[in-house]
Amino acid sequence: MVLGLVTALVLTGVVATTVVLTVRTSGRAVPLATPSATASSARPAPAPGTQAPVSTSPTPTPAPVTPAPGTTAPTAAPADPLPTASDLPTTPPGPDRSLRTNTLYKVDLGSVSVACDLEVRRPKPPLPDKKLQGYLTDVVGCLTKVFSAPLAARGFTLVEPKVKTYHKRVESPCGDFGQYGSPAYYCSTTRTIYWPDTVDDGREAYTFARLGYVGLVAHEFGHHLQATTGMLYGYSGEYKEASDKQGLVLSRRLELQAQCFEGVFLHVVRKDLDVSAKDRAELKSWHSYTGDEDPPDDRKPDHGTSKAQFGWLERGLDSGDFSDCNTWTASTKSVT
Questions:
Q1: How buried is residue 118: exposed, middle or buried, by Cβ count under 10 Å (0-12/13-18/19+)?
Q2: Number of alpha carbons in the 13 Å side-chain half-sphere of residue 40
Q3: Whole-number Å distance between alpha carbons of 42 and 54
Q4: What whole-number distance in Å separates Cα of residue 92 and Cα of residue 95?
Q5: d(Cα 238, Cα 252) in Å, to the nearest integer?
Q6: Cα–Cα distance, 277 to 303 (Å, whole number)
Q7: Looking at the chain, which runs of residues are DSSP E strands?
Q8: At what angle do helices 212-228 and 277-287 cross, to 10 degrees?
Q9: CA distance 325 to 257
Q10: Positive or negative, the Cα torsion across 288, 293, 296, 300?
Q11: Domains of the chain: which residue ranges?
Q12: Whose CA is closest to 186, among 233, 150, 148, 218?
């Protein structure tokens, strides 16, 4: 789940300005801090009722100079040719950071296999609380290893997010989180995944799967990829202008894309983590409990149905191609 974000908006040749964006499920207030226009130097205007002074003295005309007999009048040195457009220095265009045509969709890892030497820890029995943060950080390290170079090749700089496990409650710029509500949170303001340390005690569905810890971290890391590539900023811009109904559709597109990014990761490490048909079945069983339809009338339809959640995860898992994760151009039916 992604709660809020702070994104740096960089305008070429101007300044880097922090744009503070707060996403809420109701009341879409998005305060912006933008640079003021820079005043240019201007000539002071004359006082009212007066006229600007005008020089009335004629400009003297210089007398012609006649060259001495036997000499040649000097000629002006030839002017340097003006530079053409091809001579001027150019700045290579940066990556496309929009929702629908983002440069990330050009990253295809279908033929890539990465080994992280990551031990898969099944959440049953749960890890001791004192070891949980260290293990989740190892998973994040594997995700960063998988995606850093491919994103750098496309102009994105991937910074490894932090993991913060907590007991009872924790305060963050994106809100205060407790032990109930969601098994994990991503806050782009701090680039941190927040993880309540009691949710792996069996009450959350991810604990049913061998890849439960890995999959849930990968989903939250998917939101980090959205922040890194600018898509969270684009989402927030559209969300604040949307109706309640449209906002829910946008939220589902965001969450289901993170599901697909999770699948891309599992595709790349499928050999290293020995992802099997049984793992797929467990992932499907896990998400049969996390859809917007379960339990009925108790959830807002903001994450997608169980079918959509596993379907988008499977798209990424099958192909390893980010172009298959473009939920922003997908039909509304496919993100229900």
A1: middle
A2: 2
A3: 18
A4: 9
A5: 13
A6: 25
A7: 2-10, 16-21, 162-166, 170-172, 175-177, 185-187, 192-196
A8: 70
A9: 6
A10: positive
A11: 102-335
A12: 218
Check residue 66 and report its DSSP letter: P
Give the tokens for residue 8.
């740096």
Lookup result for tokens 């000539």: 43
Quick one: tokens of 2? 């992604």
The token pair at 318 is 């099958």
Q: Which of 199, 170, 172, 171 shows the shortest CA–CA distance to 184?
A: 199
Per-residue pLDDT of the chain (336 residues), as tens digits, is 776 543 333 333 333 333 334 333 334 433 322 223 333 333 344 444 444 443 444 444 445 545 555 544 444 444 555 555 555 566 668 999 999 999 999 999 999 999 999 999 999 999 999 999 999 999 999 999 999 999 999 999 999 999 999 999 999 999 999 998 899 999 999 999 999 999 898 889 999 999 999 999 999 999 999 999 999 999 999 999 999 999 999 999 999 999 999 999 999 999 999 999 999 999 999 999 999 998 777 789 999 999 999 999 999 999 999 999 999 999 999 999
Give every CB contact of residue 315 below 8 A, 6+ residues apart in sequence: 260, 263, 324, 325
Closest CA relative to residue 194, chosen from 12, 1, 40: 1
Measure the CA–CA gap between 273 and 115, rounded to whole angstroms.
8
Angle of helix 212-228 versus helix 129-152 axis, rounded to 10:
40
The Cα 212–Cα 289 span in angstroms is 13
